[in-house]
Amino acid sequence: MKKIISWLLVAVLAIGMCSWASAETADALDFEDGNFAFLGVGAAKPNADTATALEIVEYNGSKALKVAAQGIPYVALNIEGLAGDKLADVAAISFDIGVDKAADGKFYAVSGVVYSYTGEAADENKANWSVYMEKKNPRNVKIDFKAAFTAGAGNYVMISREDQAGGEPATFYLDNIKLLDKDGNAIALDTTAVYVAEASERDMSNLVALTNAVEFPDFHKSAGAWAQDGLEMPQEIIDALVPGSVVEVEFASADGSMWIVMPWAAAGWMRVGQGTAAINNSKTIAQIPYEMIEALCGEDKSTWGAMMQCEAASDWEVFAVRVGQRANQIVLKNAVEFPGFAKSAGAWAQDGLEMPQEIIDALVPGSVVEITYASEDGDIWLVMPWAAAGWMRVSQGTATKIGGKAYITYEEIAALCGEDKGTWGAMMQCEGSSAWEVYSVRVGQKAEFFGLTNLVSFPGFAKSAGAWAQDGLEMPQEIIDALVPGSVVTISYESEDGSMWLVMPWAAAGWMRVGNDGTDVANGSIAQVTYEQIAAVCGEDKSTWGAMMQCESASAWTVYSVAVGQAIK
Amino acid sequence: MKKLTAVLLALALVLSLAATALAEDPRNITIALWWDIYYDSNDESWEDNEAATGKDTDLMRFDNVKTIEDTYGVTYEFQNLTYAGVQDSVNNSILAGEPDCDVYMVELGWGVPAVMNGYAMDLRDVLDPDDPLLKHEDTVLNYVNLENGAVSLLTVNGAEDQVAATYPLAFNLQMIEEANLEDPRDLAARGEWTWDKFREYCIALTKDNDGDGVTDVYGYGAWITDCLPYWYMSNGTTLASTPKENLSSVEMGETLKFLQDLWLTDKAAYPLPEESGWDVCRYLYRDKKVAFTTTAAWIMANYDDYNWDGKAETTLDFDMVFVDYPIGPHGNADTNATKIAAGSFYIIPVGIENPKLVYDVFRAYQNWYHDDVALRDDPEELEWWYTTTSDKLDLQEWNFEIMKKMGERTVVDFAGTVLESMPLREFINGDYTPAQLQEEYKQVVQDTLDQIFAN
User: Fold this and answer.
1) pTM as predicted
2) Do A133 and B81 touch (CB under 8 A)?
3) Could you tell me which CATH number the domain at B179-340+396-454 has?
4) Å between B376 CA and nearest CA of chain A
5) Contact indicator for A187, A300 with CB cutoff of 8 Å
6) Which residues of chain A lie closer than 8 angstroms to B278, CB-CB?
7) I need a labelling partner for A428 at 20 to 30 A (CA). Which of A518, A543, B2, B137 fits?
């Protein structure tokens, strides 16, 4: 939730700056002018289909917004921008909604949810909509909001399509969207409002982090299904392709597939990563490890040929390609926030704070200091100026840096300042070789997410239950086959307290929880449980694990999908 | 000639009217629900139901469609409106006086308010006063008793529906035998199975086997929110069945005191754990840590106690036997409710044409077995329910009959929504007296009920 709020705050700020200057108002969003910039495809939900297509079309005698998606579409409305200073008066929403018949010519009932995020904490509330009979398609839906909206708190509204009686995923149409006050009067809407997409959020599920990434210049290509297109690799890309590196492709394709082709390889025309590349749950980023190319094209990269192309099993577009060294994503467990650690300084200047007791307590073997920062040259490190061993720079130029965060381990500090943390001195500072700004510092136990290739989806694994309740499915053969040493079960989920683990109830060794003993790696949306963790409690012989795999959490939970993949190591 | 013309014209008119009448489509009775059910007038073969295998009962269900069409001169159709769609249709079309469908599948949370708000037909106004449904004596359908007396919330009879969601009291037969105690089933048969007797048994069965000062076996063990409803029902009451809360009733006070005494005074019940309480308490019986427990078939299936699926490597080496809950001071073995209604129900909305015909067709659809309940309740189809609770045929049948009997007296009680908000573990541990708990939480219960019944 915090993540949603943070990007929305950014969005709201941007909207506030750019969209309220010259207001054009309307009582209803009727799409007659073709404008729908005030809404967009929501990507905050883990099961969101970010490839949802939005389009203005003629529908039922006027223009309407057409929403088409294979997965779950979430249409997000910039309600704060639309309602402006009347935001607090918004008590209800009404809209006309209709659905397409299925390919068999039949009407199937369709329903979904209107999500509203209200109040200072942007609390989520839900109310259902439905188009349930052919003779009432389209129909008007009115939803009363359960709480008031608050300006500047990242409040917004989303309309999803989640359930239907049959047929393929239904395309639906929205029209005449109105925001109503408590008396049912339409509130004047500023149609110049702009929905700001969740640009800062990258779905990193199933992926490794890249360090020292090198961009493949001008790699923006598109083609039809099974057609290839690409470029000759410049020298910097060839140089970056070394053991431990990864080719990362940012893409969109209708079926979510993507791989690379090395057409000039001496070993022959080669597809690499077809069905095996690491691909995130949003199907927007694919990663192909160096070793995957090496396995097909040979150990000597000079024989790979200079041409690198992309391909997919459906129409595709590639927006960027880069090559970098891979690093597992780091997750902090039992993280403790360093209070007030928001500092900035020029190049080679230090600033920091005395460590409070909770930070000192959190600094134990296996822990890591996480610095959220920005700097001109990307570098940042710690300084321990009062250490008994002397004024110390720690991890200068060597800290692991992933996505605006730097990580410095307890062991790295201890190597310079000594094993006894009582001698480190109370002051912790940051420093960089260019102007830098640190937004926050946290200390917690270090855990890592693996990047996953060869992902095998667990069919139908969408479950939810209350705290400490389990639910799951019997494993199909393909999941059992995928569970081999080095494999990882990845769970896409939400839970109130962020916890998530597996239960193997039919294990011969007994009813077993796996991953709730402190060995879990979960960040509130993705949890990973390794084969080795399961084997440690259920035994080395997987035939004794029992066929049932369940999920569980210490709080109410929803699992959107489960898959098994091979860890990129 | 004029006469002949007139006769011919009259004849033409009659024939025309007859042809019109013959050409008119039969009434199509629609049943709204949120999953696909078979068979209806749209189906052309028993194979339209992919789950069917062609066994005799599949064919009977399919043939029943034609029988209904011929008998009542109607067609009927299930309409999957989705879950949200059924709610929308109930709340909008019935209120507007033009129901979209003739029958609605509902859940209690919104079905009861729909009935209380007058959206559902009271079948007392539709059926003959002697209709067996009104006396809970119909073979095919039954209804849930509501405070306003309305016969509106229909349930479908059938052994599986009855045994589902029952939570019987179970005891370790060998522990009773080893303690030389009379079988509780015999006491129940004689009407001597009371709270006092149960308390006596629990005290007798609570033991420190090795003399180390630590109790090894408790007379009773269950998670409090699992078991509390069954204890207050055994005292003839419910917690949240009506728009007015019942936490403050005398019967509820007696129940709370009885349970607190069992845990706190007698120390004859397994202490409620702080963490994962329900998880621990549901399976105490497997480790012989309790003699009596509140259980369910699905709990006993979870670890394959008696190898119902043939996959278990080991099974329990003792027998768990189901028995009626003992009767409290305000209870009555003949009238106590014994199961909290759960699952899906049906209503016939007000405002439809000829509700009697709709009822008859709906009942006829459910009665695909033509009153031969042996077909409906074929033990082979219900095998799981038998084999999960014992590996001995006589006990399987006994336990099944206890669950079935519990399912015969179902009551609406929104206890599940209410109990979670109460500090019941703290109460059992003595942080509240029964009167304090009642006083402090009666408004919480009332607020919850207000929300439910105001919808």
Assistant:
1) 0.61
2) yes
3) 3.40.190.10
4) 28
5) no
6) 468
7) A518
